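Entry 14. Two folds queued back to back today. First construct below, sequence then structure tokens.
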Amino acid sequence: MRRILGMTVLAVLTACGSHKAEVKADEAVTAPAAEAAQPAAAPAAQPAPAPTPAAASAPKIVIAAPATEAAAAPVITAAPAPAAAPLVSTTVAQAPARTPAKISKAAAAIVHAKDRTAEDHALDEGRKPAEMLTFFDLKPGMKVAEIGAGGGYTTELLARAVGPTGTVYAQNPSAFLSGFLKEVWPARLARPVNAKVVRVDREFAAPLPDDAKDLDAIVIVAIYHDTVAMEVDRQGMNEVLFKALKPGGALYVIDSSARMDSGIADAKTLHRIDEAIVLEEAEEAGFRFESESDFLRNPLDMRDWNSSPASAGERRGSSDRFALKFLKPRHHHRADKAEGGEKPADAASDAKSAATAKAPAAAKADAKSAAPAKANAPAAPKAAARPAPKKDADADGDE
């Protein structure tokens, strides 16, 4: 019995030993397999750091390119900036010199006179009477005339400037007198300050009487374009004005400007005139251009609207206007001094004086400075074809 029990225990022990050996054998086989699997996983994890250097290097290229472009951009944009400034200053420097709109004490005193009417004061902002009187440079005791006096706004200012010892001839055509001036004009002349004003009811073609001679100045304010619209013989009119002035006397013309090179096309429709026409026609009559003033200039005016008071509305007094001064040469003697007389030998000096006078614009100066040479040329066709005067219902009168 004991022998059988011993053999059983031995068998059990032998079986246990065999099982342990199999487990160890399994572990020995599994361990190399696991170790073999570990190296396979490691290479898969190693490529991960590889993209990191590539990713780091890519941004360097992208960043470097914009940085270069950003540095170049200021060079491109900054270059034109310095060049733009001289363009503006050069344009201003090349603008034609104009008479400064300074105001004399005498002119300021006239404008601020307490007995001027409220209606006249209401027009002052657009008319700039102080600057105008300063430009005219009238003195007490002078003899002056106004062509197309209208309602007398300017006439009264002239009367105040020449004073009680001076004389003002104020002309109006029948078309004005029978129309909008029927009541206004007599009321103006009745004012005590206008006691020395001589009423002249004559047509534009022959605007002054024979006793109006040796005048110091003649003014035409906002009317020259009306003489075009009314088809006045302007050549004859200007010759009368030239004859009435004393040697050295001045002709002043103020009017709303038309577009350059438009001639007389806008005279009736827009009540404007190209100042080149005024220059040409005045010089044809013997006047010499002397100077201009810019106190009524308005560069914002497109010059495409009607400047007549009846049509301008709120824009009245805002049109771009030129103010020109012409002189009757002191040494100029015409047929009115000696019948059949010829022009003096020193006519060449007139041309020289005209060439050195200030011009409203360089281009116009070149075109107009040859006026003395035109004296021997045939009359322009437009002068010969001018018809007789006729009425214009929309005449400006006194602007």
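Second construct, same run, same settings:
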Amino acid sequence: MAVLNGPRLSACVVLYQPDEEVLETVRSLAESTCPVDIYIVNNNPGSTEIPAMIKAGWPQAEIITCSRNLGYGEGNNQVINRIHGDYHLICNPDISFAPDLLQRMIRWMDDHPDVGVLSPRVLNPDGTEQFLPRRAPTVRYLLGGSLSKHGDRLLEKADRLAEEGMHHRLCEAWWRSQGLLPEEPRPVEEEEPVQPFDKETHVPGTAIERMQSHARQEPLDESGRAQPVYERMVRSSREAEADPSPEETLEAALAERRERGLVGLLSRRPTLTFLRSERIRRCAYRLKRLRSHYTMEDAPPTGPVEVDFATGCFLLIRTKLFYRLGGFDRHFFLYHEDSDLTLRARGQAKVVYNPEFCVTHAWHRASSHSLKPRLHHIVSSIRFFNKWGWTW
């Protein structure tokens, strides 16, 4: 289907509520060292300012205006009967890249004819890597991904709780009980030296009189009566028994946790600071670890590797393969259309992620900030699992 002496590459950018950010994307496509047929699909017929700016700046770009919002996948399908090159690029309107990137990607695809889809490394505008999913979506991955943004906030909350004094006391007690810390040495009490007998300071009288004289020097109790030595000793002993050790405090908290449950336990402060902060910390780490595994952040590939998922923000696919797949599934209005396309493509060719190629993505994550995109994400997730099976 390739046209002789024509561009080997076509690119489609779908717009809905565009801003001037898309101009940088079109500039990257137009300034590419590889000739590109540029198609701009406007899913919002009421928005004409940005498409007019694109047409004025790059007359070679073809503007396709839809009568209504068809969604991301169906919007990309509007060019399926117009493209004739060897490769087709699906690109978000917030992507920018180097002029030689597309030529290098096409050259790599030519050298690997068994690869049908190529996905690059995606960077944030500040240069940090943007870890996007690279494994097949599952219910567990999606839940972890949706909640992972709360992980940092949970860790901050745990750190605030850790600043309370009781946390440190109970934490050290638990560490010592597990043998992770050595036993704290007890301070050695210095014995008072025996005073030599002095006639001038000696109190005359019998032993009973000396005890009474000593008692009169003791502090008074609540009733104003002098507190004898033996009563003070008994009281000090009882106070020592009422002040449990850190190990006893932790054991009592754990016992109450078993008896009353977590709800009753969380109402006590600061004894439960240790338990609360550690549980929050473990929950946050589990969410972040789940997201890291989903995006391969825990073991980032250093070379070309076959993956289960290629992000739709920047996806290079062979045009013939795109024809055979029939483009995107139109039932996915927004979100998971790229997941579905990748899984269908894997049945006919390899899907490869190659970190050698890099693009910059000004990711806005609309589903995290507003209700409507979040609802679209939930509906598309249900539709995706109904089609491909509910896998935990």
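Quick look at the second one. The radius of gyration is 36 Å. The longest strand covers residues 350-361.
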